[in-house]
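Aim 2, interim progress. The first record below pairs a target sequence with its structure tokens.
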Amino acid sequence: MQSRATAAAAPRASAASSFAELPATASHGPLRIEYRWVDEHANAQADDPPIAVFLHEGLGSIAMWRDWPQTLCERLGMRGLVYSRPGYGLSTPRAPRDKWPVDFLTAQARDILPALLDALDVDLRQRQRMWVIGHSDGASIALLYAALFPDALAGAVVMAPHVFVEDISVQSIAQTKQLYETTDLRAKLARYHADVDSAFYGWNDVWLDPEFRRWSIVEALAPIRRPLLAIQGHDDNYGTMAQVDTIAAQVPHAQLVKLDACGHSPHRDAPAALNDAIAAFVRAHR
């Protein structure tokens, strides 16, 4: 079947990006999703190597991953799929007056990711061999996907996940808003997003919404059956070890890795230790 994704001419932030058109549903209008395949160094011995899907953080995009997905895919012998969620990178921006609902992460796992996989003709057989790798908000989406579609993945790796809201998270996000509005942070982020205010305020506004303080996906985690690796840095200023410890309590087969000298972004703060941990975990479950 011919893919319904359409290639794009060299966009500003990501020259190798392509775009997939997702139809409107009850939860969203038509969407244009920026994506990229990372497969140049996929295992040459495998005719159909497994796919690793990368889910970025709350202010992330394809470009902000830099070369880490490529490095990890080479290590794992997998193809990689990276994409910018709606509101980020070169994907459909959030309308200025739109405010994301409290359950916006659930909608990403339930609706957007499956629709993108459909658009790229990733069938059930491929999904059953697929690893979902998420960071921060993307890690929460990975957990929700693994719970909602327990038979449509091989396993999940979550880095600095959020499963409930902690004071430290809200305080750091409030500080980030101040930096965005008073320093050059906005200009720096604008390198990675076509509509930087769409990306920043979509994420910041929902996290600082008083209603969001009650957000929790703890009770939603029990259906996760596939292998699960949860990774947290000891120096994370957006979350504590309570996040991964709670995951372990809800998903007894989950394996935890707690990294020293590591903040909120293990792939930037401790890439060697992170890649070793992921490679060992995936190898043990393949």
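The second target in this work package is listed in the same format:
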Amino acid sequence: MSASKVLVVVGITGNQGSSVANAFLNLQGWHIRGITRNPSSPAAQQLTSKGVEIVKADLDDIASLESAFHGASAIFSVTDIYNHMFNPANFPKAQEAGISVNEYACNLETTQAMNIAIAANSPAVSSTLTHFVFSSLSDTKRWSKGKYTWNFHFDGKAQAVKRIREELPDLAAKLSTVQVGMYASNWKGGLGRPQKQEDGSFVVQIPDGPEVELPWIVVDRDTGVYVKVLLENSPGKNVLAYTQMTTWREFWTLWADVRNVKIDIKVVGLDDYFKTLPEFLSREFQDSLRYIVEFGYTGGDPDVCCTLQDLSPEARTASLKEYIEGEDWSSLE
């Protein structure tokens, strides 16, 4: 291996992980190693064809993670609560434990995040590791002072960061966090998806509430931009990653302007906005959105104070206009 540094990406076949890999693929001096449970998957094979080293590891198996991290200079890690939340096997387990499936999934996500951290902190890995970048989100319960308690997809990650700082001080000294904003591509999941009318115009729903600016991100491009600059800086940085700050209404108005279509923006209550989701997920997303509107995406955490330009004045993200121009919207026709 001729590269002087090894970047290991946990979750490399997902939106965030693949963005990080792509940001480093053509950089001299870096070798990219991706972690996956299934190296033969199409996504893993596509990365292999680009020169990424794909290795098999399991987030529930610390020994496999230690092996996969061997020789790493830097690790980027992202965990996924939704795999646990939608696993049918976890519903009876949550019921038996007397908690919601959301909380059960949250606990599993935190456990896997700590498995990653424990492996990264092991002597064999720690000897070469200089940076550990963890994709986190803000501590809802803490920053809302207990007002919002069902934002588990935030709090599981925040709990992992808290535990790393308390339990693994050596790794904590190498830790930076990136809080990834709201995906500009979320419409693909159905929520807020523009509906074409007979006259060729579109109707789109946005949730009721104060129209605050939100951190939208072109996740499969710009996550890598932020992680790259975190690795160019000393550890200890905490940054909110976004492409552009804008309101729901401004986002869809821009979309209509760029695509030269008419749009009717309908403001609906949160119950209506999330009505197509299962109850457990609707409650989760309603709490999450109320928290973001009232306290901000980072909850006002004073430690999340770096901007992209603070870290690297030359670094640039995409724009939402560029995203809209480059996205495939044919499924709306």
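The longest helix spans residues 101-121. This observation will shape the mutagenesis plan for the next reporting period.
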